[in-house]
Model the fold of this input.
Amino acid sequence: MSDAATSGIESKWWYNSKTGEVEQGFVSPALQRIGPFDTREEAQHAWDKIRENSRKWAEEEAAED
Done:
């Protein structure tokens, strides 16, 4: 990844799946981070977004069958 791309993503927000905390930048190991998100509020609702995407993908797969 280029320095410009890295510097932009370092200011993004992440949800730490181990601690349940929202963090800005690369605070925790990658395996514990969900994101990136543009805002703290979006990161706080990471599990909602995961559930929403899972539901949507399941519906799309069912429609293909």
